């Protein structure tokens, strides 16, 4: 008797009217309505990311655009008074690290890349290979800042 009652309740639960149709919440937040601009470039035309005194410079409040595929990004850690020639100054105390990963629910399908530590007053090449998509860039150590990188076909 108890089994029959549980079976009947299970059947009734499965036959309930469907939930009212509505606009489902998006899984991912859409890209914000910001200007899309190329990453700044160095004198040789390489895209660059500058962290100045611990703050991600030039990239917040915009969507930076890169072409898909392999790219070499120049990462500069600009700290006032620091340079490669400085003697007696521990440049590693103001080192930074960066993390780029997919944005949204597809982030597990996108590659992630890290670089660091990049000492104060130093610039380093960062080789990344990015398929089309949306990426988040974060200063994960030694500073602050987040940016959105859009990688898409037809971008030069």
Written overview of the protein:
The protein is mainly beta and 156 residues long. The N and C termini lie far apart (72 Å). It has one helix spanning 2-14, and strands at 36-38, 48-52, 55-57, 63-66, 69-78, 96-102, 113-118, 122-130, 133-141, 146-151.
Describe the secondary-structure layout.
Layout (H helix, E strand, L loop, with lengths): L1 H13 L21 E3 L9 E5 L2 E3 L5 E4 L2 E10 L17 E7 L10 E6 L3 E9 L2 E9 L4 E6 L5
Parallel strand pairs: 1-4, 2-5, 4-10
Antiparallel strand pairs: 2-3, 5-8, 6-7, 6-9, 9-10
Which descriptors apply to this entry?
156 residues; mainly beta; six-stranded mixed sheet; four-stranded mixed sheet; 1 helix; 10 strands
Short description:
The chain is built from one helix and ten strands; from the N terminus they run H-E-E-E-E-E-E-E-E-E-E. The chain has 156 residues and is mainly β. Strands 1-4-10-9-6-7 form a six-stranded mixed β-sheet, with no helix packed on it.
Specify Rg, calculated over alpha carbons.
Answer: 24 Å
User: What share of residues are in beta strands?
Assistant: 35-45%
How much helix is in the residues?
under 10%
Shape: globular
Widest beta sheet: strand line-up: 1-4-10-9-6-7
Instruction: Give the integer mean of the pLDDT values.
Output: 82
Task: Kindly name the structural category.
Answer: mainly beta
* Series of secondary-structure elements, N-terminal to C-terminal: HEEEEEEEEEE
CA(first)-CA(last) distance: 72 Å
Largest sheet: 6 strands, mixed
Uncertain runs with pLDDT below 50, 5 residues or more? none
Strands, total number:
10
Number of helices: 1
